[in-house]
Every structure is written in C-alpha cells, then in structure tokens.
Task: inverse folding
C-alpha cells in the first residue's frame, strides 16, 4: 500500500467517525459496551544453555567464552473486547521472570560485575493496547468500480497501538498506526503500518560502573498483501523496513582482546534493517492444514539471513488436533564480529553470538483440545519446542495455554 493510499484509509476512517449522515446509517451499538469476545492465558518456560564470547561468567580465562545460561518464566494474558459494532480493543500483558539475563542494579547496593556475571534475577512487564475501527464503504462507492475488483462494499480497518515495557534498568515505549482494506468481496487484503519504539536504559563501562542513561529509537514501516487463491489456499507477502538510531547494544556485553583484557563492545550508532516475508496456508482433505513461511533479511551491518518454516496441523478427533513444526534459519555475521579482537585501532567490535554467523533449527509439537462441555469456546493447549544452533546454544521451550472465545 502506498503512502497516499495509507493516508486515504486514515482519512476515510476519520470521516466515517465525524460525519453525522453516515452515523445515522450505522446500526446502533450493543446495549452493553466492552463485551468480552476472547480471553487467552499462557505460561511459557524457556531454558537456555550454551556459551558466548560476549560473557565471561564462570570462565577460567578472560579469553574463554562465558556461560550464557538463561531461564525465563513468562505468564501472559490476552483479552479481546468489542466496544460496539465498529470498535474492537485488544489488551495483552506479558510478565517475564528472568534469571541470568540482564545487568543487575548496582545502585541498589548489590556487589556485582555486570561484565563478568549476568543478573541473578530480573522481572519485566509490558502492557500492549490496540484499538481497531472497522467500517465499510457505501454501496454507491462500490458500484463506482466497474472492474469488479473492489467487490461489494469494501471494508476499511484502521488501528492504533500503544505499548509500555518496564524492566530493571530498562524502559520502552512504542506506538503505531495501521490500516487495511479488504477488496474483491473480501478475497484480498491490502495492509500497512507505521511504528516507533523508544528504549531508555542504563549505561555501563567496561568495568561494570554505571554511567548515566542511553537511548535507542526504532522506526518501522510495513506493507502487505493477503490473497485467497482458491477456497483451500491463502497466500501472503509482506515487506518491512526499520531504522534504528542511538545505543545499539545492551551496554554490558564484553569483547576479549589479545592483551588478555576485556572491554565493552562498540557498535555503530545506526542500523537499517529490511525483511521480506512470504506465507501460504493450504487446507488438506484429511481435515488438516499445511502452512509455509519464508523470510529474507538484510541490514546495514552486513547480516544476510534466510528462514524457512513449515507447520502441519491434523485433527485426530472432533475436539483434538496436533501440530508439528520445523524451522531452519541461517545468517552471516556482522562485519565487525570477532571472538578475539587485536585492538589495533579498531573502532567497532562485538563478540555477541547473536551477531555472529550460525545456522539454527527449531522443532516443535503442540496438542490442542477444545472443551465445549465446560463452556462454549473453551480450549486447552500444550506444546514443546527444541531450538539448537551451530555455535552450541540450545533452548528448551514449554508452553501451556488456556482460554475461551465467547
């Protein structure tokens, strides 16, 4: 969707809200506002093992890779509520309990070296609120399209999103606006969004001494097209570009030098990132579904990445289905990645394993059960994923989810 079309979508929504004539044509809203349509709760557990040169925790030598163990428990809740026929709200609240993940708070009187040892415990919480407004054009507008591609009464949807993330030594605020247009009798959808994120966090030097605050800004634009090819096949394509400025690191990663010392990583102050995504979903005659995903990524730091994923879902009982998934990912490292810096006049260096070259694999299995005998729309899911990559990092992920659609 072009910029002019995106602005037209926003303008159309504003006119629909403000115009008294169209307000009279709109059916009256429900008597009870904010009717709950969906509630989902989930608990996810992450257990990470491996080492990385950005850490020197539990190492015998400053030049050895350090322990990168990480444990996360994440309860979360998602609520979808309808205010009236046009307006829908979505509230999402994830909470993270993290062990050995981010720098601890020195100003609380704890004795800690943030370069050599990660935080013993950290908590994080986010609140995400999205409001969507749905509207259809008048019949006269639709009849003006003689080609027939618009179909009858195309539907506009515009949305506004706000997010607040609070963590020890870290704050983040995000806001975005999006719009979509359903065409060809809802067989095709054009979409676009603009988002911006501001991060504000503590800065530490190579010795782990806190020295003020740093900021990072991320601006993102996405455009996409979804098309129903047949009654059994749907395809989707999306392109996104992001521009980041400010402190690109987390300020506690370190880099080993040939001198036997370690210094805080030094990253560029800006980063442009591009991603192209393709998806498809295919219904299978055996009451199953096959989904495919491909993503190409590139950025200004020299990273090139490809990702392929497949999902196979199969209903084995009227109230029970299984889903198996596999994902393969490969990337090149950033131009300034090193596991041992010579330190001779270099101004950019990092040993972060996430920025180095590697291949990764993810295999997962999920079982989902519908529970209408409890109440309509109730469901209970459980899943497990195993993630591993060529630099030795492994992650075990367990998911439990329960919810209801009303």
Result:
């Amino acid at each position: 969707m072009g910029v002019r079309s995106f602005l037209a979508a926003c303008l159309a929504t504003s006119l629909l809200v403000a115009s008294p004539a169209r307000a009279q044509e709109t059916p009256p809203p429900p008597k009870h506002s904010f009717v709950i349509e969906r509630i989902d709760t989930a608990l996810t557990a992450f257990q990470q093992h491996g080492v990385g040169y950005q850490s020197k925790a539990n190492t015998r030598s400053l030049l050895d890779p350090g322990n990168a163990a990480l444990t996360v428990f994440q309860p979360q809740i998602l609520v979808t509520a309808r205010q009236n026929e046009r307006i829908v709200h979505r509230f999402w609240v994830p909470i993270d309990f993290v062990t050995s993940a981010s720098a601890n708070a020195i100003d609380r009187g704890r004795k800690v070296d943030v370069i050599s040892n990660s935080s013993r415990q950290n908590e994080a919480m986010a609140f995400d609120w999205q409001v969507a407004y749905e509207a259809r054009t008048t019949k006269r507008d639709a009849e003006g399209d003689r080609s027939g591609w618009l179909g009858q009464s195309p539907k506009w949807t515009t949305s506004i999103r706000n997010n607040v993330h609070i963590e020890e030594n870290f704050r983040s605020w995000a806001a975005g606006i999006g719009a979509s247009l359903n065409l060809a009798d809802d067989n095709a959808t054009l979409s676009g969004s603009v988002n911006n994120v501001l991060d504000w966090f503590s800065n530490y030097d190579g010795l782990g001494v806190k020295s003020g605050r740093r900021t990072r800004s991320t601006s993102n634009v996405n455009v996409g097209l979804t098309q129903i090819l047949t009654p059994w096949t749907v395809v989707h394509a999306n392109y996104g570009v992001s521009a980041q400025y400010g402190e690109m690191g987390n300020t506690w990663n370190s880099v080993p030098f040939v001198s036997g010392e370690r210094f805080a990583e030094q990253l560029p102050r800006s980063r442009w990132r591009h991603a192209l995504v393709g998806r498809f979903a295919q219904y299978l005659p055996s009451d199953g579904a096959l989904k495919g995903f491909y993503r190409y990524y590139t950025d200004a730091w020299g990273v090139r990445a490809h990702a392929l994923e497949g999902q196979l879902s199969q209903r084995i009982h009227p109230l029970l289905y299984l889903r198996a998934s596999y994902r393969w990912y490969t990337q090149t490292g950033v131009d300034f990645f090193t596991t041992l810096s010579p330190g001779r006049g270099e101004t950019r260096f990092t040993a972060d394993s996430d920025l180095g070259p590697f291949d990764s694999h993810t295999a997962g299995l999920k079982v989902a059960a519908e529970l209408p005998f409890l109440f309509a729309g109730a469901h209970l899911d459980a899943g497990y994923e195993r993630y591993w990559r060529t630099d030795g990092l492994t992650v075990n992920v367990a998911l439990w989810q329960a919810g209801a659609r009303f």
